[in-house]
Structure formats: structure tokens, C-alpha cells
Amino acid sequence: MRVAIGRVVVMTSRATALAALVVGAFGAFGCARKPAVSAEGLSLRRVVIYRNGVGYFERAGHIQSDKVFFKVKGSEVGDFLATLAVIEKGGSSVRSASFPIKPLGQQPDEPGDLEPLADDPPEDELAPGRPRPVRPHPPKKKDPNKLETVVLELDGKAHDLEVGYIAETPVWRPSYRLVIGKGASDLQAWGIVHNLSGEDWNGVRLSLIAGAPLAFEATLGTPVIPTRPTVTDMGEVIAAVPRSETSLSQEPAPRAEPPPPPPSPASAPGGAAGEESDSDVRDSEKSRKPEAKKDVAGKKGAAPKSPAPARPRSLAMSERPAAEAAAQSAVARPNPSAPRNLSALAAVATEAGATRYDIPTPVTIPDKSATMVMLLSKRVPGESIFLFAPDGGVGDSQAHPFRVARFTNQSGGLLERGPIAIFEEGAFLGQGMVDPLPDGATTTVPFALERSLAVETQRTYAEEGARIAKIESGVLVVERDSVSRTRYRVKNGGDKSAKLLVKHPRNTQARLFNPPKGTEDNVGTASALVPVETAPRATTDLTVDERQSLERTVDWLAAEADDAVRLYMADKRADPAIVAALRAAWDVRITLVRAVEERKKLTDEQGELSRATDETRRNLKALEKNRTAGDLRAKLTERLAKNSLRLEEITKKLVEVEMRVNEQRVRFSDMIRSIKLLNPPKAE
Length: 684
Description:
Among the domains are: 453-568; 571-673, Helix Hairpins (Orthogonal Bundle), CATH 1.10.287. 21% of the residues lie in helices and 35% in strands. It contains seven helices and 30 strands. The longest helix is centred in the C-terminal third of the chain and has 47 residues, at 576-622. The two termini are 77 Å apart.
């Protein structure tokens, strides 16, 4: 059975076709023995590989027929139909695309042929009219690699066609090289591509996409009849009207500008890996001349010895004279070279938020093989420093920092997650892992542990400060800071100064207070990178201050209230009318506080005298019958009289002070009840 799809979409713009295909569904990856899709007369011209396991394939050619027959794997038919796009350059159009389907109700497994039962009686022994019993073979499993035929019907006989579709493909993988220099570094990016499509990619245009568009498996090749609601003729109506979906127009992004022309060989930076130009050799010889002058008799200006004849670069070190080997070892080893021909690098462009690397030259990748292509080579800001970032998987990292490579992505596009090899002064330093890095972002990649630096950590907590949060209905709400201070003590046991970044775990609800210059606050990752420099054989302290605001209701006579109100009245941004009202109320508060303090002082003295008086009375009672202690009784009697007199004076003063306290409290309460402050200036 075969079904035809009328009017396949015909696109006149290749960029529009790609944009439409990316949004489509994607298929299942089949065996690598046969290509997922093939068509006679249409050769593979373009391959675009994404990071989600799919690839866009484009075939093109001249067709002298009104039909094009595609051979498609059974497992790929639905996805091929879901993403099929035809770009026609001729004067005719596409009529339809037809493909085979299975009848409704048929199981995915095909039934086998029928065969007689082994214990059947002979034919002549069967009863008249009785059929011979039979049983089916085990069902045959459906082969996902079986090729189905999809027919594309065209108007006319001559056509220049480009056909694009999506199929499952291994993801491409990035790999990076970073050569650390003085003030800047060289960044190289490579892409590893695997071809398991079932056919050779001969001279195709290759693009790698740093992104993962939505991908799902389509089953357009399987017929489906959904269950429909039953509508009678009893006058019923549909209760809800289905709503339509509207898609806004999305114009494709402009094509990327072509890469700049390659520089002349004389000005090209460096050469290919393992090569060296004549100018490089001359520069290398020039760099060695000052050392030669210094070595001759130790005298300034002495003529250097004539250099030894140049030897072929292919000679092994063991074949060179010992003197030349020693001289070569004193010279810094070369770093991995930058590409000599910059036009061979991929063109980087951003479309619809995805970064695309277009390889400028055709690429050939045989089936069941892989290749690695250079995507970019850039001079970027980068350096080698230290990072203190305790990691549970590295026990010693709790006390020692990592050596890290730190650089900024200036490639113009996104760098996908991948391994990075780090070089400096001709030496391999280590490997790390780069997380997805947008353009303009900076990353810090650990590659070794540094034991000549040690870090000690100590954390303290406190509450500080007081600011007015709100005044309403005579109630004062004060905002205070819950302060967390973390001290990092960095000890440098090396002979060189060390630049260290401390990865401080952040409380996302708190704010950094007066952080050191150069601090990078990454709230999204709940961390902050705080810089600190330590001199050789020295110890440096770094304090990270985090503060979180807390609001609480306080008494107007509390010290926090006095601090908050005075801070507000001294603020130039404060409301003058509220400041005047608070200042008048605060004059009354001063009198009230003094009266309260005096009352407390008198109350404390009263309590002390009461205890002393009771003790004196008990002592006098104990000496009442002792005739020899007359002088002591007289002394205690005099003390009792003085204490009683002082108690009477204190009682009278307490009455007066209590009246003043009550009066001033009423005045103060009445004054602050009229003050309303809901949005005071925020702390600077």
C-alpha cells in the first residue's frame, strides 16, 4: 500500500530550508552498513552536524525524469518525511511524495507462512470435508535496515534539485589547545567528526553547530486514525471551541561575513605544527646572539664564536654533537604552532542563538572513520594563575590551590564543553575540561595541584548596623545585618609571588560587602572569585564579608533604635519633614531615657539598702542579750537609722522620677505616633 503527500514544500532559500529543517523531527540511527537515505542522481553535497545526535544532509543533482526514487531505511522513513525539504532551481515544481505503509491493524511483526503439524494423519485418513490442521511459523522480526522506497513526483522532465533531510548522527566533539604566553595566550579549537552513515562523505561542505535544537522521533510513516467524538442530531453543540496556534514570522539570520583573506607568508603568525619558516629560523638565531656574547670570556662586546653548520631538522638528538645538544637544551622549547594559512580556519557565525563553524574547504570522510578539523586559532587574553577551590574528589585541595589556566573566549561564538591541553614555554602542563563558554565569557580551568601554597580558612558570625526599615503607628522596624566573615590565610612557600583566586562559596541571599577590587560575583553558580596576591615566603590574609539584611521590631528606647534614627537624620537623602519630627521627638526621648536611667539607679540603690537594713536588724536581734557587745549594738543601731533615712529619701525621689518618666513617655508616644516612614533610603 502506498500513500502520496501532495505538494511538498518547495523553498527558494537554502538558509530558510535549513532553518525549517532544524525545527523538524529527527530519526533513529540505524546500522552503518547502508546509508539511511540514498537517491540515484543526487549526490551528497553538504553535512551539518549538531550536538544532540542528529545531522542535516543535503543532496543535489540534475534529474532528467519526472520521478525521483529514494531508498530509505524503514526506521528512518518517518523522520525523513518529517524533515524533507526540496530546493528546486528549475522551472517546474514538486507534485507529491509517496511511500509505503502497513494496513491498519497489522502488527509490527510480519506473520510467517503456514506449515502442517508434524503429527498430522495422512491425507487419505482425513475425514471427508475436514481441513488439515496447520500452525504458523514464528513471526518474522521487522528489519529496521530494510530499505523502503519513497517516490518524489515532479512536474516536467528536467530538474536541478537540492534535497535536505535530518538523520541520526554521532555528535561532534570539541578539543582545545591553550598556549600560555606573556600577557596573552593562543587558543586553538578542533572538532572531531565520526562518519557512521553507511556511505563515504566525498568532498562535502561540512558545518558543525555548537548547539542542540529540539529533537524527537517522528512516526509519520505509520497511519493513525484517532478516536473521534460522536455528535448526534439532537441539537447538541460543541461546548468549547478549539483555539488556533499562531507562529510569528522568523526571518533567517544574515549570512556570516566571509573570512578575511590570508596574510602573506612573510606576515603569517607562525606555521603549521612541526614546521618552521626561514624567518622563524632567523628570529631564533637573533634571540640566541646576546647569550653567545655573554658566554665568550665573560666580557661585554666580545665577538661570539662562529655558529656550527646547520644540521637537518630530522636528525635525532643522539646524532648531534654534545656541544650542540647542550646549546639546544638551553633554548626554550617551541610551543605548538598556530596555523600558517588563516583562510583554512572555519568561519564562525551565530544564527538563532546557535554558533556555526563552516569549514571553508571540502572535506572527505570515509564511512566508518573519523576526522579532526581545526575550527579556530585565536590570540586571547589568558594567563596561568592559582585557584583555591576545595573539591571533595581531591582531598588535598582543602588546603592547597590548583594551578589553573584562565582565558577569555573571544572567538565570536560559543565554545562547547570539551577537554583542553595546556602548554607554556614549550612544555605540556596538563589537561582540564572547558565547560560551555559563551563569547566574551572568562573561564578558569584547573589542571594541577600546587603544594607550595597553603590556605587556612576561618569563619565568624555577628549582627551589625541598624537602619530604619519602617515607622508606622508608633512602631519602629529596624533593619540589621547578619554578617558572615570568612578569613583566608594564604601562605606562600615558593620563591615567586603568587596570584591566587579564591572560589568563595556564596550565600545567594546575602550580598558582598566592600569586596576586594577585581572580585567576580557569580551568584548564578553560588560562588565568588576573589583575587589575592602573596609575596614570596610570605603570608597574606584575605577577608570576605557577606551581609544579609534582617528586619525586626525594636523598642524606641533600645540602643539599636538610637543608632538607626541618628543614621537616618544624618542622611542627606532623608525627608526633611520626617527628620524635623524625629529630631523633636528625640529631644523628648533624651529626657525620657535620662529619667528611666535615674529610676533604675534609685531602684537598684533601694534594693541594696533594703537588703542591708534587713541584715542589720537580724544582727541586732542576735546581739540583743549580749551585754558585752554594747559598742557593736550602738554601731549597728546608728547604721540602721542612716539606712532607714536614706530609704525614705529614695522612696520620695522614686515617686517624683516615676511621674517624670510617665509624663515624658506619654509625650514621646504622642509625637512618634504621627510619624510615618515606609520607604527610607536604602543603604549605600
